[in-house]
């Protein structure tokens, strides 16, 4: 069984397979190494990858791209404040996350970024299967090191939609490639200073829980903290 890897970008994607002691970048149906990360919805069918890019000029409002930017992020995220410049409609869903609107099969439908990414991955899976003449289930999907845990989980969900398993971060891939084991030391003061934005995010759900429970800090006798974060003094102080 060949090892398959997907590199998913904002604009395009690349499929590679490990075989004959080397790495081959797979060509798509257009004999190109890069496949557009695009899903174009039509009245009768949807077009993925190169087919989606070919029809995008005739149907821009229903052509979805830049999905990697949207995955796992809330609609209010500072990185998503330029959504109005996109040709397709994106609104805030009931859960605070983006919803993508497109006309498909004669009616307007909404899709989550995870669903769209799942469609993109299914196209990449199809390209790999055509090249290998075999079913592809296990694969390596590159995850940017800056992705949050929520974004990583959204990618995993998208891979599940496409019938795929496994993923790994870009950083881990590079370390495995060069067989590097990196260690470092940092002082607690430096660590807590760097962690300020994250610690502030930890405090908000705690305050929300108190409000919803109708309690005050003074009325709580003790708190049981679980998980690896419970060993961080800055977390305990909150």
Automatic annotation (TrEMBL):
KW Nucleotide-binding (keyword) present: yes
MF annotations from Gene Ontology: ATP binding; ATP-dependent protein folding chaperone
Keywords assigned by UniProt, alphabetized: ATP-binding, Nucleotide-binding, Stress response
Cellular component aspect of the GO annotation: cytosol; nucleus
Keyword Nucleotide-binding: yes
Pfam families: HSP70
InterPro entries to which the protein is assigned, alphabetical: ATPase_NBD, Hsp_70_fam
Protein name per Swiss-Prot or TrEMBL: Heat shock protein 15
């Amino acid at each position: 069984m060949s090892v398959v890897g997907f590199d998913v970008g904002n604009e395009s994607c690349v499929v590679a397979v490990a075989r004959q002691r080397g790495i081959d970048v797979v060509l798509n149906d257009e004999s190109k190494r890069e496949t557009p990360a695009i899903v174009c919805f039509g009245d009768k069918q949807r077009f993925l990858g190169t087919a989606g890019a070919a029809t995008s000029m005739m149907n821009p409002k229903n052509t979805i791209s830049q999905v990697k930017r949207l995955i796992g992020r809330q609609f209010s995220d500072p990185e998503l404040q330029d959504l109005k410049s996109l040709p397709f409609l994106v609104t805030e869903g009931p859960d605070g996350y983006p919803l993508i609107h497109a006309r498909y099969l004669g009616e307007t439908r909404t899709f989550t970024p995870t669903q769209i990414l799942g469609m993109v991955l299914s196209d990449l899976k199809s390209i790999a299967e055509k090249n290998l003449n075999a079913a592809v289930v296990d694969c390596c999907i590159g995850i940017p090191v800056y992705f949050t845990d929520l974004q990583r989980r959204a990618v995993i969900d998208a891979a599940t939609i496409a019938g795929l398993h496994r993923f790994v971060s870009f950083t881990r891939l590079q370390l495995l490639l060069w067989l590097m084991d990196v260690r470092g030391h940092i002082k607690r003061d430096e660590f807590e200073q760097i962690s300020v934005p994250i610690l502030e995010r930890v405090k908000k759900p705690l305050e929300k829980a108190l409000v919803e429970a109708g309690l005050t800090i003074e009325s709580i006798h003790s708190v049981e903290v679980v998980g690896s974060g419970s060993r961080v003094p800055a977390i305990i102080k909150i």
